[in-house]
Each structure stands twice: as structure tokens, then as C-alpha cells.
């Protein structure tokens, strides 16, 4: 992403990251804060180690081969039909709500470059144990960057408790939860989503990058004093920070 911005001659950006892209956005803001005006996280991965079992399975060696099967004749339509039947059976459950959007994503995966990019991105941050790259212990470093978190209350891929933990660990962040929405709140209520994003951009100012302040934050190492929110959320965040969920960067 940094190289792309350099090629396009773009000095600073507001980043919106969804799902796995949310994890990429958080890591980018951590590694290159001088390039980030604002950060918007939507149903983002990379908050803590916990991740949907489907992602864990897809990260295994046979995961790429399974995606390659989608390129065979009639395989993708069969999978989509089975998914639609399962979605109807699950009805209004969280998983049933997210299935149609997941099936739309499958439309793009038979393209070799798309499936290869998905597999490489997934394996860089997820293995059979869960997410191996998280930012929870470094969230406090974003306190100078305006952060908007958007989540669906019925997200079956990345549960809404991840949003609450990220909000608690990121000083000054804003949290919007779409009640009844799943992993794709921008599909469920696009007008509200756009309104939140535009209001957030209009109401915030890009930070001045301060290397000395960042250095001091790293020296103090954040910790309990940077975590806010309800007691149970604080306990969950601090517990994750003290576990093996350390940022790979």
C-alpha cells in the first residue's frame, strides 16, 4: 500500500478497511502513521486472536486447492446453490444473514489472481490457531489518528465483541454498531454507512505527525492506562494484551 501511494504521488490518505482489509489498514496505520489522515475499520480482522473457523481452514495447505476447485465447470454454481439453500434454512440467524454476501465474494475467487491474492493475504495473518498478527497491544499508538469503528451487531465472521475491544484499546476512537446487521453493514444500510463516513471525515482533522510523541508512547508502552470501556471489556482487552497475542510487527 505504501508503494502504491508513492507511485500515485499521494502523500496522505484516509483508510477504510473491511474484514481482512481492516487488519491490513490497522497494521498500515501502525507502521506508517505519517501517511494516515484517518482510519475507518469495518468488521475488521486483526483485533485479537479469535477468528472464524472458516478462515482457519482456508489458511491450511489444502485451502488454496479448495479455492482452485471453484474454477472447475459447475463447481461454483453448485457451491452457491448449496449456500443459498443453507442460508434459507438458517433464516434470520447471523450466519444466514451473512451467507448471501459471502457467496457474492465467491464470484470473484475463481479468477486465479483473486484467489491467489486472497490466499496470500490470509496466510500472512491467519493459521490453524487463529490470527497470528494482531494489533491489540499496539492500538494505543493510534491515539493521534482519528479512528471510526463500524460493525454489525450480528456479524458472524468477526463478532461485535472485537469492535468493543478495539474501541476500548484505541483512545479517542468512535464506535457505531449497526443493530441487526451482519459482516457487511455497508450492504445492509448503505445510506447510513455513507453518512457516518462523510460526517466522520468532515468532523475530524488529520493529525500532525510527531516522531517525538510516538517515541515517548513506545517508551511508556501503553498498558492499562490507555484502555477504556466497561469493566468486562477492559478485562478482556488487558487479558489479550498480556497473552501471546502480540503484534507481529
TrEMBL record:
Molecular-function annotations in GO: catalytic activity
GO cellular component: membrane
Database matches in Pfam families: Abhydrolase_1 (PF00561)
Domain AB hydrolase-1: 5-190
UniProt xrefs under InterPro entries: AB_hydrolase_1, AB_hydrolase_fold, AB_hydrolase_sf
SUPFAM superfamilies recorded: alpha/beta-Hydrolases
Identification of the protein by name: AB hydrolase-1 domain-containing protein
Species name: Mycobacterium pseudoshottsii
Amino acid at each position: 500500500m505504501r508503494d502504491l501511494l508513492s507511485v500515485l504521488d499521494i502523500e496522505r490518505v484516509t483508510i477504510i478497511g473491511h474484514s481482512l482489509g481492516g487488519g491490513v489498514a490497522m497494521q498500515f496505520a501502525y507502521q506508517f502513521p505519517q501517511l494516515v489522515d484517518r482510519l475507518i475499520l469495518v468488521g475488521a480482522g486483526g483485533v485479537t486472536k479469535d477468528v472464524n473457523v472458516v478462515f482457519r481452514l482456508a489458511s491450511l495447505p489444502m485451502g488454496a486447492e479448495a479455492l482452485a476447485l471453484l474454477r472447475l465447470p459447475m463447481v461454483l454454481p453448485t457451491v452457491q446453490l448449496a449456500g443459498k439453500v443453507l442460508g434459507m434454512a438458517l433464516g434470520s440467524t447471523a450466519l444466514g444473514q451473512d451467507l448471501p454476501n459471502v457467496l457474492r465474494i465467491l464470484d470473484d475467487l475463481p479468477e486465479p489472481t483473486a484467489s491467489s491474492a486472497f490466499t496470500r493475504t490470509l496466510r500472512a495473518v491467519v493459521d490453524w490457531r487463529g490470527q497470528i498478527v494482531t494489533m491489540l497491544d499496539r492500538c494505543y499508538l493510534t491515539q493521534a489518528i482519528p479512528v471510526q469503528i463500524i460493525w454489525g451487531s450480528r456479524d458472524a465472521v468477526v463478532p461485535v465483541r472485537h469492535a468493543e475491544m478495539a474501541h476500548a484499546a484505541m483512545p479517542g476512537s468512535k464506535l457505531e454498531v449497526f443493530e441487526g446487521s451482519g459482516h457487511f453493514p455497508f450492504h445492509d444500510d448503505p445510506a447510513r454507512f455513507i453518512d457516518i463516513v462523510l460526517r466522520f471525515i468532515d468532523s475530524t482533522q488529520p493529525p500532525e505527525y510527531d516522531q517525538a510523541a510516538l517515541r515517548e508512547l513506545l517508551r511508556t508502552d501503553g498498558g492499562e492506562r490507555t484502555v477504556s470501556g466497561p469493566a468486562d471489556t477492559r478485562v478482556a482487552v488487558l487479558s489479550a494484551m498480556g497473552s501471546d497475542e502480540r503484534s507481529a510487527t
